[in-house]
Design goal:
three-stranded antiparallel beta sheet; 182 residues; M1 Pyruvate Kinase, Domain 3; eight-stranded mixed beta sheet; globular; alpha+beta
């Protein structure tokens, strides 16, 4: 059995607060700031609702990553969603992003992203595709909310990221803490 390939499928950015982001040949990650040229670039929060609440909050959502396997699942449910359309900066394959603990470091080329939490999907997903929200936010058999729309992170080391780049996953020291919405 061959080892699972962990790689970048696509990279995306948008300089405005659009829901979807356009695919790029590469993106440059800047330590402590995020994706250069993206609307969420900066040391303090850029998400509109968070800016309204407290614009001085640190930006723990500098980079949004989604596993492309989610798009495969959504296709099976009748939704054709392409990488970048759910607003992520980096689309991955082969990394179980949702299972990673807080503080996991993802090395992609020279860049390092530290995972901070789960994306908290909102009504904009239904505005994008009617009924899609229930496929990315569900309840498990015990009634717990399960968020499937990717993870957020901060840039811990600058570098360029492009499709085809391999991803190395380094878990933090134990005890591991599960991801929560951020």
């Amino acid at each position: 059995m061959s080892p699972l390939v962990q790689e970048v499928v696509g990279v995306h950015r948008s300089g405005s607060h659009d829901f979807s982001k356009r695919s790029q040949p590469f993106v440059d990650l800047v330590e402590g700031l995020g994706v250069e040229g993206d609307a969420h670039f900066g040391a303090t929060v850029k998400h509109r609702s968070r800016v309204a609440a407290d614009p001085s909050q640190p930006n723990m959502r500098q980079v949004h990553l989604i596993h492309s396997e989610l798009f495969d699942d959504l296709r099976g449910a009748g939704y054709d969603v392409a990488p970048g359309e759910l607003g992520e900066n980096i689309t991955t394959r082969g990394v179980e992003l949702l299972e990673l603990p807080v503080g996991t470091r993802l090395t992609i080329g020279d860049a390092v992203i530290t995972v901070t939490g789960l994306r908290n999907p909102c009504q904009q997903i239904n505005d994008f595709r009617e009924g899609l929200l229930k496929h990315v936010v569900r309840r498990d058999d015990d009634g717990n909310v399960v968020r499937l729309a990717g993870v957020m992170g901060i840039v811990s080391r600058s570098g360029r990221v492009q499709p085809g780049a391999s991803i190395r996953v380094d878990l933090p020291p134990e005890p591991h803490h599960p991801l929560t919405r951020i």
